[in-house]
Amino acid sequence: MSIQAINQYHNAIHKIYQYSGQNHEQAIKNEFQKLINHYCEKRHLLIVSEINIKNKQGILIRPDGIVKNNLRLDCGYWESKANVDLDKEINNKINSGYPLTNTLFQDEKNAILYQNDQIYLKTSLNDERELDKLLTQFVSYESKEIKEFTAAIEQFKQDLPHILTALRDMIALQEKTNKAFCTARYDFLIICQHSINPEITLSDVNEMLLQHILTEEIFTSIFSDSQFHRENNIAKELYKVESTFFNGTTKRNILGVISHYYTVIKLRAAAIADHHDKQVFLKVIYENFYKAYNPKAADRLGIVYTPHEIVQFQIESVDFLLEKHFNKSLADEGIKILDPCTGTGTYLCDLIDYLPAHRLAYKYKHDMFANELGLLSYYIANLNIEYTYQQKMGQYEEFNHICWVDTLDNASADFKGSTGDLFGLSVENTERIREQNSHKISVVIGNPPYNSNQQNENDNNKNREYYKDYKKKTGGIDGRIKDTYIDKSTAQKTKLYDMYARFLRWASDRLQDKGIISFIINRSFIDSRTFDGFRKCLAEEFDFVYIVDTQSDVRKNPKISGTKHNVFGIQTGVAVLFLVKKSGEK
């Protein structure tokens, strides 16, 4: 009940006054934020604290709280004061450029709600009914901009199928009439088959090309100062294919139908000042793009977002374990860090924020590495990493250590990789893979795909095996699993070929003689009989094993049914695993 929540707020404030003898602004703010969040949750909104935004004049301001929806759009602003003249404080905020589209001002006595630049309601906090009315109106407000944005996304979903048909028809015509297109596309196919998967077809390349064409404007709309989409090494290869048929009037006519979609994205992105928020906004836009592009495959193609808090915990814990076991830190030169399934680049972005600025330039150029298989995820990760670095260091620096590659295919005893010479085709991506494989990795960190169907963007590969010799079913990651986890197991064997087991096997081999692995895993690895061989191998191969079990498995604990008790919003139990290997020690 909302009135009950208001009464709980008053009780909390009364206790604060009882113990301290005065109303502290910070204490009042904390309790009132809880109250606002109670109203937000009913509408699937969230209030976030003290994030910079740009006002209409382009000036940075920082409200105490911003109400955001699941598209990361700003729905309302909140300012909390105590022991001051509230009207005077409001005038100061207005003069400094605070928006009044939907803004709540509050002190220890009163609340004032502005909507559309006018006072909508002013009430005493002691009037529960009026305060309930005010807070309900605050979280119910939908601005003209949000309505336009939502409408544009819905229109995009309707328009996109027609555009895709036109583009596919155009590509089919090029296949028959355009030799330059066929040559450029075949060259790119060879790159894909060697970097990603030998089973990739020309049809798959066509789909990658479509995604590339349709997403260029999204990148430039959200990151207006970025040249990424033209400078990235893989993007440049796709541009070679695109430029053989899709430019000038043809491009303008086809994409002009959805130009309004790009325009509203640009307008919303322009108001986002915080680079973390901009990254999340990009991710949300891509999720919506996927749903419109291929609704049936949205779950499989969707970008898995790892919450910032978990990533921070993993990074800080690894730093602690490096100090504890090796007398080293993540900031030290030569401690090389690899995220083998980087998704949108969350881990390296947070690592950039975590490392001290005076050490970052060296680490960025020499000690940080990432792999990603999905084309669009790779694009996003590369852009996010470079943008985060630029925000912290004040200058742009290309990130040369992200590879478009299937990590699980990039494995062999001597870590030479499986890319070969690409039949003489010299590509920057291949050189990046070779360089990464030449380094001794100290830390492997990340969140492996939790569903084997999400391993890549090709329907034909969703049950793919990873053997060096597919006929004999030997070698490769699946061969290593067979020789280790399965060989030592007494249980049913098939589930040991899931993506968690594959990435853990790969990381264990890649680490060689010493270092640390930190992965988010399915908690069934902890005690399920299926993974008894896996646990035996960990005990043999590593000196220390640390597991943080979040106790979030719905099947194990019916009392937490649903998904709200799981940080990923799933019913599968989640754990965080830390493995430490020390050379010559046991």
Q: Given the helix and strand composition, which structural class is it?
A: alpha/beta
Radius of gyration, taken over Cα atoms and rounded to an integer in Å: 26 Å
Envelope shape? globular
Report how far apart the termini are: 57 Å
**Could you say what the CATH architecture of the largest domain is?**
3-Layer(aba) Sandwich
Number of beta strands: 15
User: What is the CATH T-level topology of the largest domain?
Assistant: Rossmann fold
Give your account of this protein's structure.
The longest helix has 34 residues, at 144-177. With 586 residues, the chain is of the alpha/beta class. It is globular, with a radius of gyration of 26 Å. Helix 1 (2-20) packs antiparallel against helix 2 (25-42). 50% of the residues lie in helices and 13% in strands. Strand 2 (53-54) and strand 3 form a beta hairpin.
Q: What is this structure's SSE topology?
A:
Blueprint: H1 2-20, H2 25-42, E1 46-49, E2 53-54, E3 60-61, E4 65-68, E5 74-80, H3 86-95, E6 102-106, E7 110-115, E8 118-124, H4 128-140, H5 144-177, H6 179-195, H7 202-222, H8 228-231, H9 233-242, H10 248-255, H11 259-270, H12 275-293, H13 298-301, H14 308-326, E9 337-339, H15 346-354, H16 357-366, E10 368-372, H17 375-393, E11 402-404, H18 428-438, E12 443-446, H19 476-486, H20 499-510, E13 515-522, H21 524-527, H22 532-541, E14 544-549, E15 574-581
Parallel strand pairs: 5-6, 9-10, 9-12, 10-11, 12-13
Antiparallel strand pairs: 1-4, 2-3, 4-5, 6-7, 7-8, 13-15, 14-15
Helix pairs in contact: 1-2, 1-4, 5-11, 5-12, 6-9, 7-9, 7-11, 7-12, 12-17, 14-15, 15-17, 19-20
